[in-house]
Amino acid sequence: MKSFKIEHKDLANIASFCGRGVSSKPLVPAYKMLVFSLSGGTLKVRGINHVFGVYDSISDVVGDDVEFAVDGFEFNKLIGRLSGELELSFNAMDKRVLIKADTGKYRLWAESPTNYPLHDSSNVSQVLKINAAEIKSAIKVASTSIVKDELRPQLSNMLIKNGSNGLQAAGVSNFSLSVLGPLNGECLADDVEVQVFPEIFQAIGGFDGEVLVYQNSGLSIFKAENGRVIAQQKSLGPFPTYEAIIPKTCEHNIEVSRDGLLGSMHRLIGVADGESKLIKVSISGNRMSLSASDIDSGSAGEESMEIVGEASIDITISGTQMQKMLYAMLAENVSIGFNSHKSPVLIKDDESGIVSVLMPFTC
């Protein structure tokens, strides 16, 4: 039996992070397992599923060289209830990992990870350098327009690429677009496009410092300065061309309090009909009126606010989508541009570099 000792907080931290890569009910049993490998004092842990893998390591771990795989959900559930220094022992013959803590001894089923899947990280080229905080900000903004789309999976992803104003990130759906840029980063190859799957958004939350992105024919690999790594399959199709959706000019341009408009959306959504929570926006002169109703329940609401600028337009938008976009913005005032009741609505936060486009409802 081979064993090693490790502090609970260190083990819980690495197991929790890598646990984001395991699946609860996979078709391939190995995809629900965390793999622990201790060699030369460095403990490496990985969790892999059919889409991506999460990797992390800890140095200066005292113990025997050993490798085993254990159910990721069961392991994290147990480790979360322990504390202090832990000793883990694995016996390949018994197919058990024994965990000794101050409170007692605990056993989980485990096995040697023979023929477990691995990502092919050969022949990679570095394509992008960006700070982790920038990726997290990009995810926050792009997520406001990302929806799950089984028929067009690219619409579920975030794109990072060089745009007209430098490095930018974008999220696109059939009814909205959100772009953040310029990002504080650098493309290290021509025509770089990195599609980031929503499945790894949560794991990227564990990144700190500079992030280097590598690609080969099948993978995009994200390596953070704090040693954490995510390997993700490359998308099978191109990301939608979105630049043409952004209006170049708008006939009607106004500025409005971000908090004021967000508050109105929040309240009117409570009485609006349908999943999209449609809100009618009417602008006359320097006043904006917003209204919503639900025919089935008889609920209705109206609000009005002062705006900077003047316009004359009636348009219906998704209150739910507008609320999501405003949540991601930080400026005190946001600018909104209209052309007609059938044309895309342009919402901008110039302070944060956020450009959002919302398609109106015309039915």
Account of the 3D structure:
It is a single chain. The radius of gyration is 25 Å and the shape is elongated. It has helices at 8-18, 72-79, 132-142, 201-204, 258-269, 319-328; strands spanning 2-7, 33-39, 42-48, 52-58, 62-63, 66-71, 85-91, 96-101, 104-111, 125-131, 158-163, 166-172, 176-180, 185-187, 193-196, 210-215, 219-224, 229-233, 252-257, 278-294, 299-318, 333-338, 345-349, 354-358. The longest helix has 12 residues, at 258-269. With 363 residues, it is an alpha+beta fold. The N and C termini lie far apart (70 Å).
Helix and strand content put the structural class at: alpha+beta
Number of helices: 6
Please state the oligomeric state of the protein chains shown. Answer: single chain
Distance between the termini: 70 Å
Mean pLDDT: 94
What are the defining features of this structure?
single chain; 363 residues; alpha+beta; 14-stranded antiparallel sheet; eight-stranded antiparallel sheet; 6 helices; 24 strands; 45% strand; elongated
Short structural description:
The chain has about 375 residues and is of the alpha+beta class.
Secondary structure: elements and pairs:
Blueprint: E1 2-7, H1 8-18, E2 33-39, E3 42-48, E4 52-58, E5 62-63, E6 66-71, H2 72-79, E7 85-91, E8 96-101, E9 104-111, E10 125-131, H3 132-142, E11 158-163, E12 166-172, E13 176-180, E14 185-187, E15 193-196, H4 201-204, E16 210-215, E17 219-224, E18 229-233, E19 252-257, H5 258-269, E20 278-294, E21 299-318, H6 319-328, E22 333-338, E23 345-349, E24 354-358
Antiparallel strand pairs: 1-5, 1-7, 2-3, 2-6, 3-4, 4-18, 6-9, 7-8, 8-9, 10-14, 10-16, 11-12, 11-15, 12-13, 13-24, 16-17, 17-18, 19-22, 20-21, 22-23, 23-24
Helix pairs in contact: 1-2, 5-6
